[in-house]
Amino acid sequence: MNIFIRTFGCTLNQSDSEVMAGLLVKAGHKLANNIEDAELVLFNTCTVKDKPEKRFFSELQKVVNQKKKVVVAGCIAQSDAYNALLKKVSLVGVRNIHKIADVVDNVKKGKVVKFLDFSPNPRLNLPKTRKNSVVEIIPIANGCLGECSYCKTRFARGRLFSYDACAIKKQFENAIHDGVKEVWLTSQDCGAYGKDVGSSIIKLLDDLLSVKMNSNVRIRLGMLNPNHALEFLDDYVKALKHPNMFRFAHLPVQSGSNDVLKAMNRKYSIEDFVMIVERLRKEIPNITIATDIIVGFPGEAEEDFEKTFELLANLRIPVVNLTKFCPRPGTPAMRMKKISTKIVKARSKKIVELRKETITNSEWLGWAGNIIIDEVGKNNSVVGRNDYYRPVVVKNNTNIKLGDVVNVRIIRGLQDYLEGTLV
User: Whose CA is closest to 55, among 43, 66, 67, 65?
Assistant: First the structure.
């Protein structure tokens, strides 16, 4: 059967889709390049934001109308199983992707099946088809320990379930053997890893960094919440200094106001976040900090927003994932009094304009060093990452291929990337 996999959402979803693709190919199915050529469409869904969710349901309706066979996986399958449209199709929950071949076989026979249980599962070391041959995405856990008042994903993913460290290490070693250049460790909150099994993310990193690997291999540690970073800050800094680690830290602050953070049920203060960022920058000059911001959370007064604006202006964080608040069904924030859409849009625009003015990456001009080519760009260009996970575009170089490590000099800085030339 020709199957097209449509993936929405985060890095973890991308990894889940790679595994489902590998399992389906092993079972004798073929992967289609588009929906038109597919007999069956597998949607791997995300419920973090309202717009992608609406886009999924719109696409799902079109595919159903085309009389194609359908399977829905991911967070929406897990959290919205009683949706009228989803009742008519087969569903695969977030801890059941290893059963995808069985699901497809049932659908092929005209059956509708639901695999949504939360039992432990053999998530790691399964067959997979990498979307990017030089990048290995390894989920280290499912679920989280947070209770953020705006988050619907925690209903789908559940409480923290850390994967076995030996299984993670085995998948890591196999990826290195396959010749990957970047290994991305991902979960809802990497900082929480191991807390349910008496371990920690620091111990896991120590285990992985003990593996014999090429000096050009880099590990990217995914998002971790500031409250966890506080618990092991010294060891976190030490780990990020390792030559096989990207000097990159994704620490979601969400708001610059402690009052708003309290309403969000976040477990740290702005002072904590600032201290962590300043410590990282002191210990690791040029480190790339990424953060997340929600604008227009219920109760966010103008004074609260100004604190967020000032935080970003003062810290000049280069990577900001900006989201306009949208209430998610079933969350406490859904019941809170919303701010007018006009105000939310104006605040979001103000932050966008601030970033245009303050984030130019001009400080990188003249920097020279190696980058790992991990993406093919437009118009004969390629994209690589330096040790600080900054994207560097190299134009007019058709001889460079994925996985190559090349030496470049930065000749131009833009808001979202750098431009380099070969040295």
Answer: 43
Contact 136, 184 (CB under 8 A): yes
Beta carbons within 8 Å of 231's beta carbon, 6+ residues apart = 191
User: What are the backbone dihedrals phi and psi of residue 270, each rounded to the nearest 5 degrees, phi first?
Assistant: -60, -40
**415: its two tokens:** 């808001």
50 pLDDT above the threshold of 90: no
CA-wise closest residue to 18 among 126, 118, 101:
126
pTM of the shown model: 0.93
List all residues 6 or more positions away from 108 whose beta carbon is below 8 Å from its beta carbon. Answer: 1, 40, 69
Closest CA to 232 of 261, 198, 192, 291: 192
Q: CA nearest 268: which of 295, 298, 229?
A: 229
- Please state which CATH class domain 2-115 belongs to: alpha beta
**For 247-274, how does the pLDDT look when each residue is reduced to its tens digit (9 = 90+)?**
999 999 999 999 999 999 999 999 999 9
Give residue limits of the domains in the chain. Answer: 2-115, 362-422
2.40.50.140, 3.30.70.20, 2.20.140.10, 3.90.110.10: CATH of 362-422: 2.40.50.140
Cβ–Cβ < 8 Å for 245, 218: yes
